[in-house]
Design goal:
Layout (H helix, E strand, L loop, with lengths): L1 H25 L10 H17 L5 H4 L10 E9 L13 E9 L4 E6 L3 E13 L2 E12 L10 E10 L5 E8 L4 E10 L6 H6 L3
Antiparallel strand pairs: 1-2, 1-8, 2-3, 3-4, 4-5, 5-6, 6-7, 7-8
């Protein structure tokens, strides 16, 4: 919807400029060409939609400077928590987790599924820093009911370094407002987008 409104506003500005230009140069307004206005807006909308949803992901297009690196899909990896259990004095063992990245040319949303909770991004971006690509996001984590006694709902942030072109590995760290932190690494990717932990696990069975 926002894309369509933007296109219409830009098109309207172009029409005003062209009409004003013809009036200034010739003393009369030629509006015959305006019969193509609706078709032009429709074509522009379709082209931009195709770019945003699909074209930007093509291999050749990915080589164009400024086009965001594609990290879309379901990733399988490992979460290693640096939290120390006061009762045992040790950290929990690493666990298998799944990262689901919904990505277009202009928008990124991220979900992380574990055996105890799910995290959903509230703000996310894929950006280039010093010629290297990163995926960074803020998230809200909601624990499953069975895990609530030991893991309350919390906010956090994650930053990944993206390796490979196309992307083959995501490595990074996370921090939470519970003063906990850890490490994440993802090396397996599936093109489908999972809705939950069980579906994600079937992609790598």
């Amino acid at each position: 919807m926002k894309r369509s409104i933007t296109i219409r506003v830009v098109a309207a500005v172009v029409v005003i400029v062209l009409v004003a230009g013809t009036w200034i140069t010739s003393g009369k307004v030629d509006t015959g060409w305006m019969r193509f206005f609706s078709a032009a807006v429709l074509i522009a909308t379709l082209i931009l939609a195709a770019w945003d949803l699909w074209l930007w992901r093509l291999g050749l297009v990915q080589r164009i400077p400024g086009v965001p690196r594609c990290v879309r899909g379901t990733w399988q990896g490992t979460l290693t928590s640096f939290w120390i259990d006061p009762a045992t004095g040790t950290s929990p063992p690493p666990k298998t987790v799944y990262l689901v990245v919904h990505q277009t040319a202009t928008l990124v949303t991220v979900k992380l599924f574990t055996n105890e909770s799910r995290s959903t991004s509230t703000l996310a971006a894929v950006s280039a820093v010093d010629n290297s690509w990163t995926l960074a996001y803020l998230y809200l984590n909601r624990p499953d009911m069975h895990a609530e006694p030991r893991s309350r709902m919390h906010h956090g942030s994650t930053v990944f370094d993206v390796s490979g072109d196309p992307a083959t590995r995501l490595t990074g760290r996370y921090w939470t407002d519970r003063d906990s932190k850890g490490q994440l690494e993802f090396t397996r990717n599936h093109h489908k987008l999972a809705d939950d932990l069980l579906e994600a696990a079937t992609y790598f069975a």
